[in-house]
Each structure stands twice: as C-alpha cells, then as structure tokens.
Design brief:
elongated, single chain, about 325 residues, 5-stranded parallel β-sheet, 3-stranded mixed β-sheet, 13 helices, 10 strands
Length: about 325
Amino acid sequence: VTLPLYTIRDDDIEARALIPHTNENGGGFFDNDVHSRVMREIAVDFQIGEHLLLIGNQGVGKNKLTDRFLELVGRPREYVQLHRDTTVQSLTIQPTVSNGIVEYKDSPLVRAARKGRVLIVDEADKAPIHITAILKSLAESGEMVLGDGRKIVPWEAGKNEGGNVIPLHPDFRMVVLANRPGYPFLGNDFFGSIGDVFSCHAVENPDAASELALLKQAAPELDEVLLQKLVAAFGELRSAFDEGLVSYPYSLRELLNLVKHMRTFPSEPIDQVLRNVFDFDVHRKEFFEVLREALRKVGLNVPAVGFEAVKRGG
C-alpha cells in the first residue's frame, strides 16, 4: 500500500509542528510485524477517506501506532482525551487564560475540522453516550452543533457561508482510540454505540516473535535469553487473564517499561525490577501464586514476590 506524503498548505502555518515525531527523543516506536500489518490495514481505509476506530486493551500501542502512521504520511494531528465528565462545551470550546483574562478558543476538534487535520480522540470509551453520539454525527453526516451556537457543516454546503457556519474541510479525519468494554477498564461499549460509521481495527499485543524483536530494538544491550524469558512470562500472565486467574491483561507497555528500567539500571536485581510492575497487586495473594508459577515456568529465578518480598525489605 502506498500513500502520498501529505502536502502542507501555505495557509496552515502551525501544521508542521503538529506532525508526530515518534523517534525524536529515542525509542518512541519500534517496528514489528504485527503493528506493521495493522498500519497497512489502516492505510487502506485511510486512503479511501474512512474514519478509523482502534480498539484494544490498555498498553498495546494504539497511540504509538497511530502517531507512527501519521508521521509516515506527514499528516498534522490534533489530540483530545475524553473522560466521564466530558461535556459538549468542553469538547468544542477551550478556555485559556491570557494576561489574567479568560478567553474561549476553538478546541482541538474544531481546529481539526476547520483546518483539515486528523483528530485523535483518545479514551473514547470513557465518555458519556451522548458525547459519543455527537462524534457519530460528525463522522456520518459531517454535521455538528457547537456549544456557542456555531455549526459544522459539510464542505460543499458551507464553503461559501460565513458567520456561525464552519465548513468541514475535506481532509478532516478522525482516529478514535478505545479500550474494549467491561472489566478491568470499565468503559462503555463504544463499538456497539457508534462502531458502524467507523472503519474498525482490533489492536492486540504483538506475538512473541514480534515482541522480542521490539524489545531488542528498545534495549539492544540486554541479554536476548533474558528478554525471551520476560516475553514468555508475560505470555503466561496474559493466558492467565484469559482464563480469569488474574484481573489485569499485562500489556506491551508494562513489558517495555521493565526493559527500559533494566537498561537504565543494569545492576538492579531482576526481582526488584519486577516489583515496579507487580507490586500494585501486592495485596492479592492468589495473583502472586500465578505470578510465581509463570516466572518459574520460564526459568526466571525470583527469590520472593508480593508480601514475601516486602517483608524481606527488598
């Protein structure tokens, strides 16, 4: 799949600063087969003008994958994160303080619609249903009524209008990111509510081979055998989550953070490093029985986990 590099218009002077740069500070995105396949599927739908919905557990790389894709095609993006208290006004108007005076400016959504940028809507499953219905209307019909009385309308209908009418730029796209509904993320069924107007893509943790390749890019100094054991241990924990034995689907994010920590502090014992992730569940004895078995199974010799490690003062 080949997409042309986006041409920044002369009248959009801020656009270049809004193009993501995933590897600018080192280690933003690491190429792997699974994410590359997802990006290819995204590119096909993006090229024909579809709005995108990416669904997956927390930490599987939805944001990084999206930023990398937009970086490759040179598209500027605006970003908004939804939550349970999101209102129509907060979604469309952004209050700012300038010289001690509160001013109301266009929100990222309105700027993206006006300028033809890509709007990233993160944590969409956390928003109330009436907010997601507004996004559905914008994606489906190109129309949206703002909190201050203005209205976004399709380009052809509004390009010659003025006043309170904002024509929706033909280059405008939405990329909506959402966790799957239910426990442990406790989000709404975003897909069931408005998924029919988006091109939907499931994003999962990379397979073991892709995950290992990614970790080797993130920390080339670390022993490959150790990385293989960590990948296998996290695979065991994810299987345990599928079976209902643990409450959290430990993701690529936690594994990558472990490896980055080990790279920065190479002399720190492995059991101490693991506690940075797993001690959040220190009060759940049954979890540590599963964790201990997963570590033992892959050959990671950890002397103590959970309260045992706390009592030892490690």
